[in-house]
Structure formats: structure tokens, C-alpha cells
Amino acid sequence: MDSRRSSSSFFDREKHVVFLQMMNQLLPSDYQGQEINRLTLAYFAISGLHILGALDENHQMNIWVAAGQFFGFHGSRSSQFPRDDKGVLIHNGSHLASTYCALAILKIVGYNFSCINSKSILTSMRNLQQPDGSFMPTHVGAETDLRFVFCAAAICSMLENWSGMDKEKAKEYILNCQSYDGGFGLIPGSESHGVYWVLPSSVRERQAADGGFQGRANKASDTCYAFWVLRILGGYKLIDKKALHGFLLTCQSQYGGFSKFPGQLPDLYHSYYGFSAFSMLEEPGLIPICVELGIADIAAIGH
């Protein structure tokens, strides 16, 4: 057995709590290239601790996240962008994914949403929606795909205001991403992917012999797909939960956290979705997760 893999046959909550607390205090040097995604990394740590039932009150987190609003929220206040072809300095603007993560964190820590300039968020976001119903994540131009449609919908849901998007256009775009096999691709005409699966029968087909889930056909099982496909349209009752539980434990690190594949070092992304999967598998002591918003249920209902 690889020395980096946990030999535990159970979900080691205490080690996971220590892992996330460490990550929340000081990220390893390998994350330096992710500075622009600092807010997303904070979301994985804060929401993960919340699911584990180990989140302490942190008023400094409120202040740090809320200070990042510029129409929406940007990923890091320290990120610098190069000048454009005309020598004009590019502003560190807001991003849909960062805005989703910021609102999720603020929801989790009980921040008063009346203190947020929701009108500017929704107005800015409405201008990011494209004629085909998709969304760009920033106002300086970028790819458009289903990830940002989800972010936009989650933002509207958390703000309890759907004026930030044309829902009918968004639905039209989503349906255009549906593939021949019933799943959904990232963009229209692309291969269906585990993150976007819709049919329970298709979900069942993605569970591999090792108990884990594949994102696409003939791909290796990956920790994060246990979350993405676990409860889509009732697919939960069709899967082999015992086999999935066993696969996830092979990805549990002796240091706490989860890795993408068995035997690798843990990272924040796969750790968070590992915790989410165990929450949906009803692991004792974990807070149930609201799969629609990606945060714990008690946060989603405002408690």
C-alpha cells in the first residue's frame, strides 16, 4: 500500500478537521498558482468544516469576503493582471464562480445579506448572459458553458431574486447541451460528463467495478464524481452505496482529506467533494448537504 494512502477502514473525521483547519490557516506552496482562486479555496475549506460540524465563528472571514465585492466578487484582492494590447491596465473584476463562492461562504457564516449590494450583483450578472442563454464568467470575455449557468442560478437562489438572469433562455441553453445518451455536455454538441448527468439509469452506468464513479465512459473513477452524480433525479437509490463507500475510503489520506485517485496526496477540491459524498451517504456526525447549492442544509435554509 502506498504510504500516502490511509489504512483506515472508517471515515476519519478528526483527521479531516485538522486537515481543513490547516488549509484554512496556511495553504501549502503548491497552491501559489491558484491565487486568483483564493476565494474558491476558502469556500472548500469553510464549507467543508461546516459539513464536518467543526466550523467556529469567524467574524474576520465575514469582513474578508465582503470586502471583495466589486459588482460581483473577485477571487483575490492581491491578483494583478497584465496590460492589454493597447497598454491599458486590466482591472481585477468580479467573476461568477467567485461570486457564487463568496455568497456561499457568507451564507454559511450567517452574514446579513441585507448588507450586500445585491442589485449591483444581479445587474452585472444579467449583462453576462449571452443571446443563447449561456453565461460568461467575467466582463472581459471568457468561455461560456454550463458551469456558469449553475453559478448564476445559485447566486439568484441565494439572493432570492431571479432578475439576474433570463430563466427561459438559460433553460433553452441547458437543453441544447443534452447529448444523445441523456447526459449533458459542458457546451452544446460536446460529450456528456459526470458533472452534468441527468438520467438515473445513466448515473448507474457510470459506477465502475471499483465502486467509484467515472466522469465519462472508459475513464478512471474519481472522488469528486461521487458528489456530482450521487443524488441526481433519484439516482441515489440505484447505486451500490457500500461499494462507493469502500472506494472513497481508498482515496482517504492518512493526513486527512481525500485525493483524486487512490494513493495520491489529498487536495482541497477532492477533499471537499469527498466530504459532500459522505454526507449524502449519511455518515454519522456529518451535516446533510443541500445538493442544489453545494452547502450544508442548515445554511441553505438560513439557520
UniProtKB/TrEMBL annotation:
Any one GO MF annotation of this record: metal ion binding
Positions of the Prenyltransferase alpha-alpha toroid domain: 11-196, 205-289
InterPro entries reported for this sequence: PGGT1B-like, Prenyltrans, Terpenoid_cyclase/PrenylTrfase
SUPFAM superfamilies to which the protein is assigned, alphabetical: Terpenoid cyclases/Protein prenyltransferases
Pfam families on file: Prenyltrans
Family: Belongs to the protein prenyltransferase subunit beta family.
Protein name: Geranylgeranyl transferase type-1 subunit beta
Organism domain of life: Eukaryota
Originating species: Vitis vinifera
Known cofactor(s): Zn(2+)
Taxonomic lineage: Eukaryota, Viridiplantae, Streptophyta, Embryophyta, Tracheophyta
Keywords: Metal-binding, Prenyltransferase, Repeat, Transferase, Zinc
